[in-house]
Design brief:
By secondary structure, the protein is mainly alpha-helical. The chain has one domain: Ribosomal protein S17 (Diphtheria Toxin Repressor, domain 2, Orthogonal Bundle), CATH 1.10.60. 71% of the residues lie in helices and 0% in strands. The chain contains three helices and no strands. Helix 1 packs across helix 3 and helix 2 crosses helix 3.
Length: 66
């Protein structure tokens, strides 16, 4: 069981995937680096939660394409 993400994280994550979807991958560390370039977030915790949410969403989207 994972932690439930807040509405703000989900909204921001979905917006970033819609705008910069091709840049994100299913690798957490890569997504953290892309987030630093696309949307500089000072809070390390928020950046990590957002990168984790985006990573999970990309994995789900890749599975749906198959």
């Amino acid at each position: 069981m994972g932690r439930i993400k807040s509405v703000a994280i989900k909204t921001l994550g979905n917006d970033l995937i819609a705008k910069h979807g091709k840049r994100f991958s299913d690798n957490f560390d890569t997504n953290k680096k892309v987030l630093r370039e696309v949307k500089p977030i000072e809070s390390k915790y928020v950046r990590n939660v957002l990168a984790g949410y985006i990573t999970r969403r990309v994995q789900i989207l890749k599975r749906r394409e198959i």
